[in-house]
Amino acid sequence: MNPAHAATPNELLAQAIDLPPAERMAFIVQLRETDAAIADEVELLLVAHREAEQVGFLDGGPLDASDHETVAYTGIAAPHDIHATICPGDRLDESSETQAVVDQWATVQVGADAPAKPSVAGVLDDEYEMLERLGAGGMGTVYRAFQRSLNRYVAVKIIPARVLDSEEQVARFYFEAESAAKLDHPGIVQVFDVGEANSMHYYAMALVEGGCLGDYLSDATRPTPQLAAKFVEQTSRAVQYAHDHAVVHRDIKPANILLATLPNGELQPKLTDFGLAKLATGEASGLTVTGQVMGTPSYMAPEQAEGRNDAITNRTDIYALGAVLYALLSGRPPFRGETMLKTLEMVRTDAPTSLPASVPLDLRTICEKCLAKNPAERYESATALADDLRRYLDGYPISARRISSAQHALRWVKRNPAIATLIGTIVATMVGATIVSTYFAISASRALAQAEANADKLSEAIDDTFVFASEDLLGDEPGVIEARRTLLGIAQGYYEELIAGGHASLPKLARATLMLGRVQASLGDWANARNSLSDALAYEQQLLRESPGDAVRFAALGQLENELTKTYQGQLDSDDEFDSVNDDDVAKLRFHAEESVRWRQKAVDADPTDVESQRLLANSQMNLAIVYSSGSVTDGVSRRGDEVRKLNRAAQKIRDSLLDADPNNYAVVRDKALGFNASADLCDLSLDSQEALDWRKQACKLLESIPREHRDQQILWLLATSYEARGAAEYELGLIDEAIASFGDVLDVVELLLYENPNVIRFRVTQAKAQHNLGVALLQAGDTRGYAMLAECRHSLVNAIKIDPAKASALNLLVDYGLEMATALEESKLPKVAIDQLNAAIDLLGTVPPDSASRQAQPAIQAAIDQLQEKVDVITEAMSSKST
C-alpha cells in the first residue's frame, strides 16, 4: 500500500494500523523515502497506539466511567492564564464526534437541567474527568481533563506500563515527578499532581494550546534566525531554573517545547515533559538504571547516546538546546539516521552537517559550541547560552568563538584514534624544532604603563561591581543578598583605600567619595553615606571655584544633591516602618531636592545642547514635586497643589521637547511615563479618581509604545506596576471589566520578568497580588473563575515563601488574603467553602521545607498557620452553634 503524499500523520497512522507487521514496516520505509520527519511521527504514533491498546484506552478499559457517578457540568470555564499545548504532530484526529463534544461544551447551560459533561475516557482517581485524547508519544498518552476540585482544565499524562515496569522505575518516576512539580517558572509547564489510579501512573499539568516548536521545522513555517534565537534563549532560561533546582531534563526537543499565545499575540515557549528528568543530587543516583539509553536519539548528547547516565549533567541539556536551535535554523535535527541505532552512532562519532549559508555566523558558532562532543567544550550553563543568544539578538559580539581548523582536527583525532596515530607518526618525522616564546620579554617601561592602565581598569571594574550589586530589582534573589553585601564591601574598601591614600587628584577624589557614599547608601548606612556625600560636595565646590561656570561641575553638584535627597528619603522610608518620622529629616529632604533642581538648571543653562542634563533636570523637578506633595514640612506651611503641578508640568515639557527631537530616546519615554504616574498620584491626593485614571492610562499607553526589544527590566517593571495601579483605579470606579483586563496585563508582564529572574520575591509577590485582584474582580463580575485564580494566588505566595522564608511580605499577604476571603465567604453563607480555602492555605504552608527556613522564619510560619487555624475553629464553632 502506498502512503499518500498529502496525508497527515494521523491519516497515515490509520492506514498503517490495519496492515500486517511486515507490510507495516515496508510502509514506513517507503514513507521515509519521501518524508523522513513524517515517517518518524507515524512510527511514534504506532508505538503509542499499541501501548494504548495494551492498557485498554482504546476500548474504555481501565478508565471506563460506568462505575462512577456522572456529574452535571456547571459551565465554569478555565482561568484565562491556563492554556494547553499539544504539538499538532502528536495530535489525534478530531472527529466530528469530538467537534460535537466541543460545541456542546460551548453551549451548555448552568443549572440542574444542564446536560452531563461529556467524557471520552472516564474518571481518574475521582478527581480528573478525562474529556478527549490530545496526543501520544513514546512516554505516554496525554488527555484533556477537567479537574473537579479547582474547576479547571488540565492535561493528564498516563504513563504506559512499558515505561514503569519495575519497582525501581516506579520509585524513580515518583521521586523525579515530585521534584519536577516543584518547578514554578513561566517557561515550564507546571506539574500540578502525580499519582496512581486504576493500576496506572499519571501526572497532571497545566494545559497550553498553541502548538509547539515541532511545528516550525518545515520550509513553510521555519522561523527567522532572530525568532529561533529568541525561542531558544527563553527556553534556556527555563532550563537554567530547572538546573538551579537540581533537575536535568534529558529529553529537550522541539515537540517538548510548547508555545502559549499571549494576549498580545506573542508566542511564549514552555518546556514540558520532565518524564526523563534526572535529579542532579546524590539522593537520586541509586534510582538511575546504568546503561539505559533514554531520550530522543536525534536530540540527545553523546554521553546520553552511550547510555552513560552517570555522565549526564546540566551540559547534556545544553547540547539538546543547541540541537533544537540547529533544527529551527535548518528544518532538521543535527543527526537522523535510517534507524535508531544508526542515529545513535552518528551522535557519538559524526559532526553535524553544516547549517545553511543564510544562517548568521554567530548562530552557527553558538550551535557548534552547544553540540561539542566533549561536555567541557559546551557552554558552562544554560544562562551562559541564553546570554550569548541575547547578545546576538541585541547586536553585540557573542562570547563563543568559532572553532579553529586545529580544534576541528583535534576532535577528529579523538573520534578516529587509529588513523590519527598513523598520520601523527608521519608528521612527527617532519618536525625537528620547537618554537621558543618571547612573550615575557617586555621592557620595564611597558610594564609600568600596563600597571597604570590596569589601575584605570580596576577603577572601572569596581564601579561596575557597584552598579551590579546595587541593582534594586534583583536585590531579593536568594543568594544575591549576601553576595551583594560582599561585592559592596569590596567596593567600599576600594574607595576608602583610594581616599586614604592621598595620591588621587581632586576630580578622582571627588568621584571616589561620591561612589563611597552611594555604596554606603546601598547598604542602608545612611549617616555615613551623608558624611561621604557631603565631603564629595565640598570637593566639587572647590573644583567649581577653580573653573567657574563649568557645566560638568554643575551637573556633578546636581547629582550629589540628588544622592543626598535619596539618603534622606531612604531614612524616612525606614523610619516610617517604625512610626518615628523625623521632621528635621523631612526639611533636609526638601532642601536637597531643591538644591538638585537648582544645580541641574545651571548645568542646562551652561550647555543647553546637553540632552542628558535636560533629562536629569526634569527628573529632579518631578522628584521635588513628589517631595512637596508628600506631607509635612518644618515651617508648617503646606505647598499648594498648583505649585506641585507646575513643577511636574515643567518636567513633562522638557521631556516633550526631548522626544520631539528624538522619539527613540526610550529613557525619556520611561521618565515621561513616570511623570504621568506622578500626576495620577497627585490626583489621588485630591480625590479626583477619574483624572487619576486618565493619567494612569496615558502612562501605560506610553510604555506600550516602547518596542519590545527595548523594554529592559526596569521598563517592564514600571509597566507591570503601572498596569497594577490602573487596574486598582478602574476597580475603585466600578469599571470591573476594565480592571479584569488590567490585572491580566500585570500577570503577562510579570511572567516575562520571571523568565529571567524566577526567584525575585518582589516579582512573585506582585504576581500574587495581581492574581488576588483578578480573582476578586472576576467574582465581583459573577465569574466563578475567580476562585481558581485565588487558588493560584495562594500557590504563588507559598512559592515566594519557599524562596526565602525569612521575608515577611509574602507570608503576611497569604494570611491577610486567607482571612479576607474566609470572611467574605462566611458572610455569603458559604462557611464550608471558607474552611476549605483556609485549610488549603494551611496545607500549602506545611509544604515549606523546614531546612530552607531560617530560625527566625519558623516561628513566623507557625504563627501564620495558627492564625488561619484559629479562623477555621471560629467558623466551625459558629456552624456547630447554628446546627444545635
Kindly describe this structure.
The protein is α+β, with helices and mostly antiparallel strands. It contains 30 helices and 10 strands. It has helices at residues 9-17, 21-34, 36-55, 96-107, 167-181, 225-244, 302-305, 314-330, 340-349, 361-370, 382-394, 405-415, 417-429, 444-469, 480-501, 506-522, 526-546, 551-576, 583-606, 611-629, 641-661, 666-685, 689-704, 713-732, 736-756, 761-780, 785-803, 808-827, 831-845, 857-883, and strands at residues 122-124, 128-137, 140-147, 152-159, 191-197, 200-205, 247-248, 257-261, 267-271, 278-279. The strands form 3 sheets. Strands 1-2-3-4-6-5 form a 6-stranded antiparallel sheet. Helix 10 (361-370) packs antiparallel against helix 11, helix 14 (444-469) packs across helix 15 (480-501) and helix 23 (689-704) runs antiparallel to helix 24 (713-732). It is globular. Residues 51-121, 281-293, 404-452 and 632-638 have low confidence and may be disordered.
